[in-house]
Amino acid sequence: MANLSKDIQSVGYDTRPPMLDRSDFESWQQCIRLYCLGKENGENILQSIDEGPFKMGKFRETLADGALCPEQDKVVKDLTPEEKERYKADIHATNILLQGLPKDIYTLINHYTNAKDIWDNVEMLLEVKLNRGLKTSNYDQMYAYLKQHKAHANENKMMLERYTQHAIDPLAFVSNVSQQQYPTQSSAIP
Fold this sequence. Notes:
By secondary structure, the protein is mainly alpha-helical. The protein has 10 helices and 2 strands; from the N terminus they run αααββααααααα. A two-stranded antiparallel sheet has the order 1-2. It comes from Tanacetum coccineum.
């Protein structure tokens, strides 16, 4: 039974990356980087965060007579084992970063598909939210970011207002239901 206890503890030991603390992005960056280095293929995971996703590239096949085929995009089966590890690291890096985000930040960031974009946009978002470093910020970049996410943020705000109103006053939900949706007894009888 003692071995079973050790196995259970080992399985659940390292399953979740560090959670972002909105007030200390730099500390979270360091923790995430250390977490990634501790993972299998950690160097490639960090490379995905720092440099962006692995580019599949193109290849040309040489025919038996020596002629070259037109360039074709590589697919996963065409990659070397090292390239496959780098490709897998991109996916792993994206998952690690998304799992380390609080729900409100995750909802703003989850549409990004690569780790570098997630990393850069979380940093920009927290810089804007905390009004930190505005003297040294790139205003054009910040404006473009805010403009890009305006519709998404407004949608989230409307949803939040709608659901918090009902949480405060449960009868408000009932009052917003239209009569056409649920006919009264008198309107259902001819």
